[in-house]
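writing this on my phone so excuse typos. first protein, seq and then structure
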Amino acid sequence: MTGQNPVFIPGPTNIPDRLRAAMNVQTTDHRAPDVADLIAPLLASLKKVLKTETGEVAIYPGSGTGGWEAAVTNTLSPGDRVLIARYGMFSHRWIDLCQKHNLDVEIIECAWGEGAPADEFGRRLTADDGHAIKAVLVTHNETATGVVSDIAAVRAAMDGAGHPAMLFVDGVSSIASMDFRMDEWGVDLAITGSQKGFMLATGMAIIGISQKALAATATATSPRCYFDFNDMINANRTGSFPYTPPMSLIYGLRESVAMLLDEGLENVFARHRRIAEGVRRAVSAWGLKLCAETPDLYSDTVSAIHVPSGFDSGKLVEHAYDAYRVSFGVGLGEVAGKVFRIGHLGSMTDAMALTGLATIEMAMKDLGYPITLGSGVAAAQEYYREAHHIGKSHAA
């Protein structure tokens, strides 16, 4: 029997049965009058996940990449300068998208394993006396390297420089799994997708839009139609869409947000921290190292793990799938062949994480990795047991 194993890629993530059932609906008339009863509460709930009271939320058929495109085309014009650091495959791809839209992209090159360089952002912005830089773009959680960046520090650097640039944040693999504070951090555009922390099928881009970003649409001249913010927001206000929406995903998103809020966002974040720490204990027990260079950069949604010299991480991931039908993430870009990735976000429990650790241990042992079978699993088990005992004692 096949097809029942969980995936340990950093997205798309495992879909809970509750959400599969919510998406299993007959064709719905998206222009029916009662659709308005679905849309307004859903958008209000999404604001709670993004932690914004002043911003708007737009949802589009698409993926996180569509969210990137919506961000730049709605608020910027060809020739506008943007500032972005490259420290992984997804920050690299956002750079590529900006360049293809004829933006003037100022790039800060960083090692893959580092995070967003808040201090360097501050220096570049301070030097920009004429305020040519219109936006700072930051990947909150670099999925390729398992690195989380400090968005509050980036905002502090921008404020310290007294610079009026907008702040765009790619939160595709962080939002709904790790704490994200759109208003508090002064984020103007927050971008995510349905297939990661929201535990749904791929196909929906979710964007938080500040009032400052919305005002920028009045002067931005980049061509846009499908992703036009104003078209979408104005249609949503009447309970409709400017074109046919993915209703099954919208029903799923309503249920997903309900699950997150029922669990409690702080509990969701704590669960991800606990599971991630167990994975990190396993990595240490194997004698391996994370791609993230320091503990403050460790992601709670994905761990990128260096393989020993002389081994190919791509072959490890391939063997794990061929032999055990379990999927892990391959290395991308500059770390291709050097790291494998364990995704531990979305619909994930301690017990599920242990199955992934046990499977990748078997695959490593099969290929002659210098590890002790069971060592990583035992280290994670000890941590999870301890964490649950502490949690119970606190609850008492």
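second protein below, same order as before
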Amino acid sequence: MKQIINVFTLILAFSFFGCSFQKEVSYKENWDTSTVLENPHKGWYHHLLDNGIERYAISNDSIFASFPGMDHLYLRLAWSYLEPEEGKYDWHRIDEVVDKYVPMGYGISFRISSKETGTYPGVVGQELNGVQYATPVWVMQAGAKGTVAEEWNVKSWTPVWNDPVYLEKLNNFHKAFSERYDGKPWVRYIDIGSIGEWGEGHTFYSTKIPPTVTEVKANMDVFLRNYKYSQLACTDDLLYYGKPDSEVSELLDYALSNGITLRDDSPMVDWYVQQHLSSWSISHPHFYDPLYLHKPIVFELQHYGDVKKDGNWIGKNGNDTIPKLGHSGAEIMRNAIKTMHASYIGYHGFAEEWLYDNPDLTGQLANLCGYWYFPVTATFPKSFHLGENKLSIEWLNKGVAPAYHEYKIIFRLESEHQESSFDLSPINSGNLNWFPDVNRTTNYTLNIPQEINSGSYMLKFKLVDQTKEKEQPVLLGVDASIIDESYFIELGNVKLN
């Protein structure tokens, strides 16, 4: 029976032992850069409720379950679906998804919008006198000011974003929403979606009047007031749409100083591709650096079907060069993810269509987003002794971002006699310092207690995530031949004297 020894400490000094009695192991020849590693706090997401309650439904759960690196489902739906009468909430559309997919291991993220451009009943929850309401009708009837505008032969109501009645009712809704969902272990983030078309912060299809700094901050404050545990996010349009640079900087500072992370909902929209090809369709790349050092960033592809219609995705895996651009769609998307340092990435379409078109790219981007850890070399003593023993591992992060959660490292000394094998209890691996494309050596001290038997052992290690209710391995980019069934990776044979 394995013993768990709570005497493991992490040492961050860079030089602490001589070389004559050391072994050095290189892992480079055992690197595996093709297997998709499905790790926590990163990966793909699927727009399940998007532009209403019917778009992008999952038609085949078995195909969806095979989607490499799928992390969570993104639910965007209008407020009027959820609070059809003041104080009377209808959560069933959310809870049906949660009850089905969370037990399968998927997370959930949210955007509740106050303005949509489509029609009742598919896109908004209410209609009155031929006008569509994403914000519930009763908010307007309670005295909130707003504007009716027509676009695509649809009339819709847009609230005045800082109207006191609107903000009061919005706050009451998010108080109820937060009491139900804030801090759930499966919640990835909650978007600030209460301004603009589809919650994107712009009013291009309604009033065309940019929300003021005061209006944006007032809406941010509603979320900051009510959500104390889940990560908040906002789209970059909320910060810059129709605003001078001074106001953009003010809003960016306000968001970041309050712990709000960012998403970009416009990568590969044709206009942005044409205008910002040098930054791979990302209009404000400076928004994400140095933000990516501290917060997870969200990439949302333009609706995949529209990307294809625009001629910006050609060939299997999007690999064919687009004549008008001189780059392939896959190249633009890959570099946009790199530019943003995105941890979560969405293809914004039907899972079956995306997977059929992009079987190889899907796995490649699942690995690339967020962190992607590789051990480079390890140095450790040829002989261990009771008490302190020092070793080091050099790490390389081939992903586009660091991790934002502390992962633990566990070392195992495995004997041919199972009862003599033992683990050294997990402690901080140092992974928060493993930044993209930087080789980083982390030094560890293993304190072996007096009661452990001398003899020959195989020294192994693994990373684990203990931030959730159930411990999860953090998979590394090495060949399966050196990984055992418990996800431990071999370091080498050692003697314990």
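The longest strand covers residues 387-397. thats all i got for now
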